[in-house]
Specification:
- The structure is a single chain.
- By secondary structure, the protein is an alpha+beta fold.
- The protein is 52% helix and 14% strand.
- It has 25 helices and 18 strands.
- Helix 5 crosses helix 6 and helix 11 packs antiparallel against helix 12.
- The longest helix is centred in the middle third of the chain and has 22 residues.
């Protein structure tokens, strides 16, 4: 006779156990187990009305007698990632058959400090406190409601937290004193936070000697582990402020940056953990998302004078620089003013490394604003105060870029050569080729483009590919491999529409002998070719005009139109990528407007096809000078847990 496996019996027992344990008004539904979710539970309120609150359940049953072993579960990394991706919270339910008890904990509250995460899987721990009891159902209901609220666009403020301090004394602070410190601080932000919650509150602050944890219902909040303790003097001054920093970062993590910034702002200067580089990044991100750039700079200026807080100051400065595209002119000017004040202070106090870093960041900010002469002066000031800049490839690359933007192409070429002598990376080579092109060194520029571009070129290299093609056309038409560019003379009344095409061509050919990169000459020649019905040379002329003056939407529109009419899909695809990457939505609107029919449909198609392109964005890397006197690099990432 067939024998039923014990594992099947356990699964049936666990399902029966949870069905009889949950409130009768809740609805339990079995689900397809192919993806690791066993069931879902829908919560109905005390009036038997649907609340809309649903959570998912992963059942794990065991015969293991040792409770300690039974409460340790392992999930493959793929399953953990799947749980984390779901829109509903996942409750891990462990059925311990020897004792007939259920233990429950939200998967989203997984703490890697106590658990273990490897490349293969996650070790998930439960404990005796997770045993289902009389209050568990009410607690889970409140936590699911909090989960839903956190995922909504707006929070119901003030958010009511329960404060749970596990010992009579924490890091040398009596419980009554720590409570008093917390409540006094909370009064400053009473419109956002209340500390009057009880055990039923889904929002909790749990404090003991080993950790400070902010719990936000059924989802992850913020945890500060203190395995080495916490200096008593520092704890008296800053532990309560650190807790509010944790609350603010937890809210920011779930998309409520404005509320997070309102909590962080008043306390960040008094917080110990805000001076930790791992915490500085999410603080900066929160202030940035909440559009609190003024506040970020004000804090940075005060932190900059402290050796212990200088790293955080630099992160806040970095965030300001990184958000330059979102800044108004007044915000950008304010930033330059504050950074210069900080640089002056650093120089006066003999801190040349800090001052040089500030001048370098001021240079980048001014360059983003198009204030190129001032930018170049600041780059030079950075190198004056810290000569090691002169041995860094990225410094020469950025200075070369500033020279290029200022149309000082000979210096741009020279500085790119210096950068390449230190670090021969592909991006610098392509920028170098661009500078060579605009400096009139056409053959060398084309050779570098051809060497560095794949066949076929990738979409991200669209503009470089077009320049390589255009240079070959330019050299063929002008017979010029290299020349010194001079301002061409078109005459006082050059209006192509009022003179013959032969005269337009004569004037343009003469202009190109002075400057083979005259956008006006190539654009006008494109019109001549187009009127003759010579679409390929017309498209090449308009392409050169576009590449020389990349903000000229009319030139790009002509290239796109001719490529579409001729069925030149290669030119069309690369021109769409390059034009959009330079001009964004304005480019799409202009192209759609030129379509005689179905403008809306064309705009939608182009938006979907090109909307994934990053317009003018680069990965951000912070270079900062530590309090130990060394230079470090860190990616712009965010952490929500910290050990101190």
């Amino acid at each position: 006779m067939p024998k039923r496996p014990r594992q099947h019996q356990l699964e049936a027992e666990s399902r029966a156990m949870i069905r009889t344990t949950i409130p009768s008004r809740w609805v339990y539904r079995d689900l397809d187990q192919d993806y690791g979710i066993d069931s879902e539970i829908e919560i109905f309120d005390e009036n038997d009305l649907a609340s809309g609150a649903i959570f998912l359940v992963q059942l794990k049953a065991t015969d293991e007698v040792s409770l300690n072993k039974a409460l340790t579960l392992w999930f493959p990394i793929s399953k953990g990632e799947y749980f984390a991706s779901l829109d509903l919270p996942v409750l891990i339910v462990r059925y311990h058959a020897p004792s007939g008890r259920l233990f429950v904990r939200w998967f989203h509250n997984f703490d890697p400090y106590y658990g273990k995460r490897t490349a293969k899987g996650i070790t998930f721990h439960l404990n005796e406190k997770d045993c289902w009891g009389e209050s568990t159902a009410d607690r889970l209901e409140n936590e699911v409601q909090a989960y839903r609220e956190l995922r909504s666009p707006r929070l119901n403020c003030p958010i009511t937290f329960q404060v749970s301090i596990q010992q009579d004394t924490t890091h040398g602070i009596p419980t009554f004193k720590l409570n008093s410190n917390l409540r006094r601080a909370a009064n400053q932000i009473s419109h956002v936070i209340s500390l009057d919650g009880d055990e039923s509150s889904p929002y909790k602050i749990i404090i003991d000697e080993d950790r400070m944890e902010v719990q936000l219902g059924a989802t992850h909040g913020f945890t500060m582990h203190t395995p080495k303790g916490y200096d008593e003097t520092l704890a008296q001054k800053s532990l309560h402020f650190d807790i509010f920093i944790g609350i603010g970062l937890a809210l920011d993590l779930h998309g409520h940056s404005i509320e997070g910034a309102e909590i962080i702002g008043p306390f960040v200067e008094h917080s110990r953990i805000s001076q930790d580089i791992k915490i500085a990044f999410p603080i900066a991100r929160c202030l940035s998302c909440a559009n609190q750039m003024y506040k970020a700079l004000e804090i940075a200026e005060r932190f900059f004078v402290s050796d212990s807080a200088v790293d955080t100051a630099q992160v806040l400065v970095f965030t300001f620089i990184a958000n330059h595209r979102r800044l108004s002119n007044s915000e950008r000017n304010f930033g330059v003013h504050v950074l210069k004040r900080m640089a002056d202070w650093a120089e006066q106090h003999g801190q040349d490394n800090r001052a040089s870093m500030l001048h370098y960041n001021i240079a980048n900010l001014l360059r983003s604003a198009g204030r190129l002469r001032e930018s170049i002066r600041e780059y030079r000031a950075a190198a004056r105060l810290d000569e090691t800049y002169l041995s860094r490839a990225y410094f020469w690359q950025e200075l070369a870029g500033a020279m290029f933007d200022a149309q000082r192409y000979t210096l741009s070429v020279e500085f790119y050569r210096r950068a390449l002598s230190m670090d021969s990376d592909r991006e610098t080579k392509l920028l170098f080729a661009d500078a060579l092109m605009f400096n009139g060194q056409f053959r060398e520029s084309e050779e570098i483009f051809d060497q560095e571009l794949n066949a076929p070129p990738e979409p991200r290299d669209a503009e470089w590919s077009l320049k390589s093609h255009a240079l070959a056309w330019l050299r063929e038409q002008t017979k010029i491999d290299e020349h010194h560019r001079r301002k061409p003379d078109f005459g006082d009344e050059f209006e192509p529409s009022k003179i013959s095409d032969e005269e337009v061509e004569r004037i343009c050919r003469e202009a190109l002998r002075s400057d083979a990169l005259s956008a006006l000459a190539w654009f006008s020649l494109g019109g001549v070719y187009h009127r003759r019905g010579e679409t390929e040379p017309a498209a090449n002329c308009f392409l050169l005009s576009s590449l020389i003056a990349p903000r000229d939407l009319e030139s790009w529109g002509n290239v796109i139109g001719l490529a579409m009419n001729d069925g030149n899909m290669g030119l069309l695809a690369y021109a769409l990528y390059a034009g959009y990457s330079r001009n964004g939505q304005d480019f799409l609107s202009h192209v759609a407007e030129r379509s005689p029919e179905a403008k809306e449909e064309l705009f939608e198609i182009l938006s979907k096809g090109l909307g994934q392109i990053e317009v003018g964005e680069r990965d951000l890397l912070l270079r900062y000078h530590t309090s130990e006197g060394v230079w470090e690099e860190m990616s712009h990432t965010c952490h929500q847990d910290v050990d101190v």
